[in-house]
Amino acid sequence: MTGCELGSADLYGIQRTLDDYNRFHDERRSAEWVALFVPDARYIVHDRIYAGHDELWRFLAGRRGGAGKHINGVPLVTSLGEGLCAVEVDYVGYRRAEGAIVVGGTGRYYDRLRRDDDGRWRFVERRIEGVLRTDRDIVEPRTAVFAGRREEG
């Protein structure tokens, strides 16, 4: 294996960072979420740029309340050299709206990650491109009402 190839331990570590990003974000584990980024990371969310841990904390302070759920597709990982990689992965974000769980947004994450001295892969940059939905975009799901029948045995 050359210095530019990623081994299975690296791929597992990268996947773990991607999974932890969603888990920590969705569970409001803010300190753990910020720790997934290097201190001078850039976080680009639909054309808004947050640079460094202080601005990541400001981003967290301004987000909406209520738990959501993010689910990733299969990531495409490309080595950029020893301890550095690029990742592209599609996502779907769900949220609660008027008592229902709805798609809040879809898109793609474009990442650069670095393996730090502790072996943890962290975001150097995460850019999010996608479509967000507002409450006005949400169509209430149809509900079916079934008449309760008691069947005799």
TrEMBL record:
Listed InterPro entries? NTF2-like_dom_sf, SnoaL-like
- The lineage's top-level taxon is Bacteria
Domain (SnoaL-like): residue spans on this chain:
11-127
Pfam hit, one = SnoaL_4
The protein's name is: SnoaL-like protein
Q: Which organism is it from?
A: Amycolatopsis thermoflava
